[in-house]
Amino acid sequence: MFRGDNSHSLSYEQQSKFILDRITNVEKHFGELCVGFGDYTRKTARLRDMGDELAKIFKEYANNELVNKSLSTGLDNLSLTLTAIEEYRNCAVQRLEAKVIGELCQYENICKHAREELKHTMSVREKEMARKKILDKARERQPFNRQQVTYAESELLKASAEMSRTAKGLSELTEFFEKRKLQQLKGLLTDFVMVEMTFHSRAVELLTVAYQQIGDINDKADLENFKRKLKSPEKPVSTGISARSSSLASLMYPQMSPQKDDDSSSLGKMRSPDKNMKARSSSIAALMNHSTSKDEDTVSETEDSEDESSTEESESK
Predict the structure, then answer these.
(1) Using one digit for the tens of pLDDT, what is the confidence trace for 128-174?
(2) What b/e string do you get for 64-89 counting C-beta neighbours within 10 Å, with b at 16 or more?
(3) How far apart are CA 169 and CA 124, in angstroms?
(4) How many CA atoms lie within 13 A of 227 on its CB side?
(5) 257, 277 in Cβ contact below 8 A?
(6) How high does pLDDT run on average in the chain?
(7) 241 or 125, which is more confident?
(8) SS in 3 state form for the chain?
């Protein structure tokens, strides 16, 4: 890189400046990318936490709703579905930390090492130029002192040989640096898009289930049940909740455990992935197994309530 035999070759100073500019450019923009992806991931983690809180609110409302049975069931199922969505969002957070932010953070040391190599090459170049000046002075002042001229020539040859080795090494290092930058940037951008695509595709599936669960809320039946309870409020009210949708279970279980990346970098304001995932998995299992044996009781109870309502209407007539 630093050796050119034709007149169009760049000078050492121009080549060094070009390499230094490339290193500085990568360091600057990769640092900005790292900060940007870090902010994006922290925002996603906060959205995940807010979704968890909203799922808890749905769950608490479902547990306390004792009259509107289909509403209670719908809220309980919606809580489970929203929890599953946030489970996938948590996986996305972890993968962004490991595959995107972790890779970008490495470039601080990579750029530092490349700058040190360039600095070493320039020092070797300066040493070669100093030896050349000594030789020129020896030839000018003492042209007949062969011993001193020969010694200066040998020192210049040594400095030139060292410069050649150093320049070749820097040329290879710079080319590797540029190639690695291109490949890794392309790879981490691909990983970012794939993480987002995976999360949103799963989220659309679960949101479709949530839409169906909301549609299953029978407001007319709940209103009739309210009227019946209003006439005889002393009767006990069952708190049974119907079983969860089988389609929801089939969507949730295959992707319940997120991938573990060894090189993931932690962000201060995010939850610990391992502890968080254990708590999430146990909570999902508890929600999935809750009240699954109460389908027939709820259906029979609904039929009894409808019969009782029709009997009371006939008696009142």
Answers:
(1) 777 777 667 767 777 666 777 676 677 777 777 767 776 776 777 78
(2) ebeebbbbbbbbbbbbbbbbbbbbbb
(3) 12
(4) 11
(5) yes
(6) 74
(7) 125
(8) CCCCCCCCCCCHHHHHHHHHHHHHHHHHHHHHHHHHHHHHHHHHHHHHHHHHHHHHHHHHHHHHCCCCHHHHHHHHHHHHHHHHHHHHHHHHHHHHHHHHHHHHHCHHHHHHHHHHHHHHHHHHHHHHHHHHHHHHHHHHHCCCCHHHHHHHHHHHHHHHHHHHHHHHHHHHHHHHHHHHHHHHHHHHHHHHHHHHHHHHHHHHHHHHHHHHHHHCCCHHHHHHHHHHHHHCCCCCCCCCCCCCCHHHHHHHHHHCCCCCCCCCCCCCCCCCHHHHHHHHHHHHHHHHHCCCCCHHHHHHHHHHHHHHHHHHHHHHC
Of residues 160 and 205, the one with the higher pLDDT is 205
Q: Give percent of the chain above pLDDT 90.
A: 39
The pair of three-digit structure tokens given for residue 92, joined into one six-digit string: 């996305």
| Cβ(85)–Cβ(203) below 8 Å | yes
Cα–Cα dist 178/118, whole Å = 14
| Joined tokens for residue 292 | 């699954």
Are 241 and 76 in contact by the 8 Å Cβ rule? The answer is yes
Which residue type, as a one-letter code, is found at position 8?
H
- CA dist 68 and 231 (Å) reads 15
Give whole-number Cα distances, 175 to 16, 20, 167, 185, in Å.
Answer: 14, 13, 12, 15
- Evaluate whether 57 touches 12 at the Cβ level (below 8 Å): no
Q: How far apart, in Å, are the Cα atoms of 70 and each of 54, 231, 239, 258?
A: 19, 20, 11, 33
Tokens at 246, concatenated: 């089988």
Looking at this protein, which amino acid is placed at residue 43? K
